[in-house]
């Protein structure tokens, strides 16, 4: 049985905030909010790519720990159920909210309780544009973790994410069939 270390939500929230702050803040005298405001579209894209790459590395390592304890198959639907249950439980302490699929290798995962966006420690009020920048950085990391997990399971994937209402998130995953 895989022993899972339970990390309180607040610790996880603070950790992801610090990772984003570290990747975004080029001037230590600026707050995260000030740094977000100064990001150009090109800079934001570069930072999102860096967050995704960090996530891929983490995802490959995490899946290596998890699969040691589970029998799994490369069948896409089984892999998706594994990701929605085991990986999500490992990362967030709960199962994904909902999973939708089509016959073409496209899956949509909904997380209705994505708490990273609640109570952002930005010390200032944040406007919608900068909130979206922050969310895109956090979700880039999660997309990377998912991509790394699929890579560790031997599947090529393409993953996109978006913020829904009430701190919900949607992850669209396309698995290469065959």
TrEMBL record:
It comes from the Eukaryota. One of its GO terms (cellular component) is TRAPP complex. Pfam families: TRAPP. SUPFAM superfamilies: Ligand-binding domain in the NO signalling and Golgi transport. InterPro entries: NO_sig/Golgi_transp_ligand-bd, TRAPP_component, TRAPPC6/Trs33. GO terms for biological process: endoplasmic reticulum to Golgi vesicle-mediated transport. Belongs to the TRAPP small subunits family. BET3 subfamily. This is Trafficking protein particle complex subunit. It comes from Stentor coeruleus.
